[in-house]
Amino acid sequence: MPVITSIEDLRQIYKRRVPKMFYDYAETGSWTEQTFRNNTSDFQDLYFRQKVAVDMSNRTTATKMIGQDVSMPVALAPVGMLGMQHVDGEIKAAKAAEKFGIPFTLSTMSICSIEDVAENTTKPFWFQLYVMRDEKFLKAIIERAKAAKCTALVLTLDLQILGQRHKDIKNGLSAPPKPTLANMINLATKWRWGMGMLGTKRREFRNIVGHVDNIADPSELMAWVASQFDLKLDWDAVKKIKKMWGGPLILKGIMDVEDAKKAVAVGADAIIVSNHGGRQLDGALSSIRALPDIIDAVGDKIEVHVDSGIRSGQDVLKAMAMGAKGTYIGRAFLYGLGAMGETGVTTALELIHKELDLSMAFCGHRDINSVNRDILLVPKGFRGDWE
Length: 387
What we know:
By secondary structure, the chain is α/β, with parallel strands linked by helices. It has 16 helices and 12 strands. Helix 7 (135-147) links the parallel strand 6 and strand 7.
């Protein structure tokens, strides 16, 4: 096993071990992938101010996200089909997050179900909701999340329709993979992945299959899902879901100041400044560029988190310095999961935590809660000088 010192090391192992369609699922954006690329590259435009001759002892990265204690301001973002990246992927990622003391967010489009994850963990996790037109399913899955004692509902607002992701279409993305010639040839080279999948019963979207009328066959599922995203989802619907849920509500997919203000008005507990990892509206701003204006507009009225493009502890520190109260990683932990299962997720978290801790110290801070924009050099025009 090579010495792993960065998230990029994990990505390279991940690429070798996971089938092409699932690697491409993670490593793709919509259309030209401009926003997908900018999500990471725009972090590089922010520079740190190094401080010296300061006390660096007794450092802490511990803080709170929506009132819950976390060992560092990082949550595992909801990622669909984790169980196709690695056998029982959602369970293994949740276990790693629990041991590390950070939140795990289970996707509606997970392979392992809400109940699967709850039965294999000891602490509550968060649940991410896609709003479906099937009201019976919508109400039922919220009740299932309550029964599993999920401590937050993460409502995704930016996926009423699917952005076009060319690679997913060309690969015929499905779970489990369709037995096409190209897939069979590729799967034959991923024996470690294949042996794992043969040893589990969890190979379909278990939050949905068996819980929706007339959907018992995974082959029918993708068409059902594509037809079910609620095109009419609006702020009144958000209010109804908030009431239906009754617990802490996080709204994911906020990229506009006016939308952030509306999130405050409906009584959400937090928002996630997110462009869905560059997988929805291509040509949109990166999340880190959109963050400052949203922070300035609503930051004292609602907790503001951010995702999309975070690949390191330094990225986490930059987001916190810009005013975020929490961050989410998706691809960064996914690389670890696909590479080495639960151990890989733990490795990814350790890498991010170490880089966050040391960089914070180099910038003259011992407590993540004291970090502010003073540690950054932000170029003029970073927010954009728009007409």
